[in-house]
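Protein Record: Sequence and Backbone Structure Tokens
======================================================
Scope: a single protein chain, as residues and as a discrete description of its fold.
Tokens: labelled as protein backbone structure tokens, with as many entries as the chain has residues.
Position: the record begins directly beneath this header, with no further notes in between.
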Amino acid sequence: MDNRDLLSERLQVERKLFFFDMKENARGRFLRITEDVSGRRDAIVIPASGLREFSDILNRIVADPAATPEPTSDEN
């Protein structure tokens, strides 16, 4: 069984492009996150069984004001 696409999303952040691809194969479901910077690609794969914990960690980081400073404005 080849990888079957279940969901795909794309996110541009500054000069980086991220692809979030939920897929399924004979071993189960997984999320592949690919980062593209000027044509260079790196990816991580997270099994579906670890997505809740992965999400919990990201949510804690986002909620921490020290980890996510306010954006600066160039309108001075």
